[in-house]
């Protein structure tokens, strides 16, 4: 039998892997030791790397140094959270100011609650806000608010959309084609989610209004909300086609279904002018926004829900939104500082740098005739590869 000859890309991957192992011996040792007390040796399953993750020793500006002394330029940015780099002098000064004033957790309102809410009202054009400790908490309670307002149980979620890791949305995050094509495409992402719970989440297709209409017809007056990322970012980058979001809002408004736009990944990172161009925000916007990640510039965990007056009226008489750390003074002080710093001109600079990288990556793809496309919006971008020989599609949905 003839030997199997590795392809060019397999040789490149093997070479790079060997170099990675050679340069990260201390990370390998740390990972092995950490697994003795931490499942998987990582704090979050999104930190999984093969054969093991590298461990960070310190960071500064746009670079990190791992425990083996390798100095690395960071294009990851903590899943897009560290918008202004590590140890930014402005953020350090703001953090010191808040801590000097307020100290540690108080669990009572402070003036920062008004400051943070006012700036979000101005920036996102929804009149009421509540604060949480993560984007996951924000989407969880946004869905609770929608179910409470309409006393309905079903929620429509977009296939492959990521909205945190609570049971209502930890469904069909990376479902395969066979699963999606089945009678019930609501596929739990992992064990521990009862079928009775996942069946309450209905999976629609991005940029396909008919897939939403199908559920509205099948479950009349039983659907509480549609939750969607205006720009789908969990499976490469998929932009909404012209009219999709606008028509989705109008359809849901007519059917008394709440529209939740999940901006956890893109708030602060992308100026709203790059987002609201996809719908008529002045006359017909979403009912709720959810925010997180970059909202505090990576200085602390934080989440938020923006809502119309109709949803705000439910709190606290009908819906309880609580948490020991919710709206703590440090988090809200950092939200205020970061949002004041993230001016339109600074966000435009980020967008300019993103375009600079996009144009050069695209030129490289074109030069070498690679089976790939590159997209960007604001300072978010993504390269998507396809099987060689396939015609490169205009990506409209996950499949």
UniProtKB/TrEMBL annotation:
Entries under Gene3D superfamilies matching the protein: Aspartate Aminotransferase, domain 1, Type I PLP-dependent aspartate aminotransferase-like (Major domain)
InterPro entries the UniProt entry points to: Aminotrans_3, PyrdxlP-dep_Trfase, PyrdxlP-dep_Trfase_major, PyrdxlP-dep_Trfase_small
Required co-factors: pyridoxal 5'-phosphate
A Pfam family that the UniProt record links to this protein: Aminotran_3
Superkingdom assignment: Eukaryota
GO molecular function, one term: transaminase activity
Keyword NADP: no
Key words of the record: Pyridoxal phosphate
Signal peptide: none
Alphabetical list of PANTHER family matching this protein: GLUTAMATE-1-SEMIALDEHYDE 2,1-AMINOMUTASE (PTHR43713), GLUTAMATE-1-SEMIALDEHYDE 2,1-AMINOMUTASE 1, CHLOROPLASTIC-RELATED (PTHR43713:SF3)
Membership in a protein family: Belongs to the class-III pyridoxal-phosphate-dependent aminotransferase family.
Protein name: Glutamate-1-semialdehyde 2,1-aminomutase
Organism: Spumella elongata
């Amino acid at each position: 039998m003839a030997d199997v000859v590795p392809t060019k890309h397999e040789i490149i991957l093997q070479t790079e892997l060997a170099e990675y192992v050679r340069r990260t011996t201390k990370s390998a040792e740390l990972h092995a030791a950490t697994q003795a007390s931490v499942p998987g040796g990582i704090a979050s399953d999104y930190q999984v790397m093969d054969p093991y993750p590298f461990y960070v020793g310190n960071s500064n500006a746009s670079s990190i140094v791992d425990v083996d002394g390798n100095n690395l330029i960071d294009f990851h940015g903590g899943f897009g959270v560290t918008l202004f780099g590590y140890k930014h002098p402005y953020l350090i000064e703001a953090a010191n100011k808040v801590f000097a004033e307020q100290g540690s957790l108080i669990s009572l309102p402070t003036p920062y609650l008004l400051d943070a809410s006012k700036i979000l009202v101005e920036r996102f054009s929804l009149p009421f806000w509540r604060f949480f400790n993560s984007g996951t908490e924000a989407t969880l309670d946004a869905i609770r608010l929608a179910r409470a307002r309409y006393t309905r149980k079903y929620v429509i979620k977009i296939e492959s959309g990521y909205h945190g890791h609570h049971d209502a949305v930890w469904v069909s995050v990376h479902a395969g084609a066979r699963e999606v094509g089945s009678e019930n495409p609501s596929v739990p992402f992992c064990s521990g989610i009862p079928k009775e719970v996942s069946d309450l989440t209905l999976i629609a297709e991005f940029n396909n209004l008919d897939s939403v209409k199908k559920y509205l017809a099948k479950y009349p007056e039983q659907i509480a909300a549609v939750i969607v990322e205006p720009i789908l970012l969990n499976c490469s980058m998929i932009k909404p086609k012209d009219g999709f979001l606008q028509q989705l809002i109008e359809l849901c408004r007519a059917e008394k279904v709440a529209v939740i736009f999940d901006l956890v990944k893109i708030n602060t990172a992308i100026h709203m002018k790059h987002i609201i161009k996809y719908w008529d925000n002045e006359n017909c916007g979403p009912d709720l926004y959810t925010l997180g990640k970059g909202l505090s510039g990576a200085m602390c965990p934080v989440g938020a829900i923006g809502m119309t007056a109709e949803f705000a009226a439910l709190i606290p008489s009908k819906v309880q939104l609580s948490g020991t750390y919710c709206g703590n003074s440090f988090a809200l002080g950092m939200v205020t500082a970061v949002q004041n710093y993230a001016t339109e001109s600074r966000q435009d600079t980020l967008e300019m740098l993103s375009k600079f990288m996009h144009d050069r990556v695209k030129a490289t793809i074109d030069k070498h005739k690679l089976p790939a496309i590159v997209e960007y919006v604001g300072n978010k971008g993504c390269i998507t590869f396809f099987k060689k020989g396939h015609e490169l599609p205009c990506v409209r949905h996950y499949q």
